[in-house]
Amino acid sequence: xxxxxxxxxxxxxxxxxxxxxxxxxxxxxxxxxxxxxxxxxxxxxxxxxxxxxxxxxxxxxxxxxxxxxxxxxxxxxxxxxxxxxxxxxxxxxxxxxxxxxxxxxxxxxxxxxxxxxxxxxxxxxxxxxxxxxxxxxxxxxxxxxxxxxxxxxxxxxxxxxxxxxxxxxxxxxxxxxxxxxxxxxxxxxxxxxxxxxxxxxxxxxxxxxxxxxxxxxxxxxxxxxxxxxxxxxxxxxxxxxxxxxxxxxxxxxxxxxxxxxxxxxxxxxxxxxxxxxxxxxxxxxxxxxxxxxxxxxxxxxxxxxxxxxxxxxxxxxxxxxxxxxxxxxxxxxxxxxxxxxxxxxxxxxxxxxxxxxxxxxxxxxxxxxxxxxxxxxxxxxxxxxxxxxxxxxxxxxxxxxxxxxxxxxxxxxxxxxxxxxxxxxxxxxxxxxxxxxxxxxxxxxxxxxxxxxxxxxxxxxxxxxxxxxxxxxxxxxxxxxxxxxxxxxxxxxxxxxxxxxxxxxxxxxxxxxxxxxxxxxxxxxxxxxxx
Length: 531
Hints:
It comes from Azospirillum endophyticum. By secondary structure, this protein is an alpha/beta fold. Helix content is 24%, strand content 27%. The protein is built from ten helices and 29 strands. Helix 1 links the parallel strand 2 and strand 3 (64-69).
């Protein structure tokens, strides 16, 4: 759990938005998803990503849409399709290129051309690291040329892949990791090319990669030193960046509801959506920096209004590790769960160690003792109830989210360490903050009358919550709420739950007190271990 003190620091207001042009920009798109590789390890969610993005684009009425799946994603075909999109669209159009699949890197082919000494590339379906198959890749300098050829058209490039690196926190294998989007052959990373079938990049290609292209907005799944995992989202294997982008096209990024998504809105949506979905394990990158007022997608789909503040609670897919006969008896004692095997659990309870593990590989709680004991089952039920609330708040926060981040970074923390939770992006100024401990115990944090906390905070943030790591260890989730109206009744009822394992009651209170209001949610996990 965490001991906390709040310190607010006023930040600058939001940047002004430029009005969208009266004429709606035509959109053309090339969407690529590769699960089936002939030599490289397969993926499970890239085709799901591509089909979801294509469906979202169709929902916008995009007619010039090319979808390449698995073996259809061949190098010459992709290049030809992109250039055909350029020829078939007017200069004021927007072109979208999305890639879901493996990435890799090799030593730079032209000495001194890369700051890190490495060339990155996207791995196509029939790629091989030696001989003719080496041609089935798209190098970073080639992609830069393709982007430059599209000017002055606006270009959005989504690369849901990675090259190499590490995870921000250790991944617990009991969660059943789906793999990452860094190419490997027989478990060995692809990191060099032999008998290269591609010619060396031209001087013009190297120049295109080196210069900033003002017409291009580029989103990468992760930083160069991180791995992009595949995860279960809505019970399907996915890449988080593609999932967030598809939802942005469906209107979730349109914060001001004007039918236009600016670069700033798209960036804010993707960063917060991916952070929430993967509990801070993945940090999307965007280039260039700034230019938040530039309109990128015009129009986007209208957002349907949710019938209530939080979506209805569905059963949590739970897997129990232990002796089959004992597992069957234990399963009968829980509410709000659906028992599953290896495929698609949201939570895994290891009855031997007492650990409860999330589907993104984090130990949420450690509950030692006899798994059949009523107290043990009660505490595990508390973890289930808390995780149900976390998932429901994450879903609601997709519509209007606060920006939360852990400083100095997303990793496992240990007893006595201090971290801070930065909170920003709020348009509502009335503020409420609670913590949900690993077992669902509610800690009411803000505002506190005895501390004389003001009910309102300045618009935009940032605000920082200072944290000290204390036992019990596991997952703390901070739930922040901003509203344009006072939340006195909600705060009174939440304060009454302080110190109680009452996650299920929190959901009911939020719906009762805030339904129909334009509230903003933020939720962020902070993970601690005794080791």
